[in-house]
Design a protein that fits this description.
91 residues; single chain; three-stranded antiparallel sheet; alpha+beta; 1 helix
């Protein structure tokens, strides 16, 4: 894969402990996500709980989606626990 002169593979590697910062917002970065190489823009996103995260749009989108599912997950988990406690479900 060849890179345009103004883009190089992303030197930030969050998997190995590096982090995107406010100075990275708006920069275009090269990402390999689940084996797919693409260019993305670093953004700042406010999560449903008020936290802010900084990273490539797709990564932030994945985290945002997971945070939106947490209330339903916890409600289902609590309901399952209650059903198990009441012997309504085979544990």
């Amino acid at each position: 894969m060849s890179f345009p002169d103004h883009l190089t593979p992303d030197p930030v590697d969050p998997v190995n402990g590096d982090q995107y910062t406010e100075r990275d917002i708006g920069n275009e970065v090269f990402i390999i996500h689940e084996g797919v190489a693409y260019y993305d823009t670093v953004v700042c996103v406010t999560l449903p709980d008020g936290q802010t995260i900084i990273g490539p749009r797709l990564t932030c989108g994945h985290l945002f989606a997971r945070f939106t599912m947490l209330p339903q997950m916890m409600a289902h988990s609590d309901a399952t626990d209650e059903a198990i406690d009441n012997d309504e479900v085979d544990a």
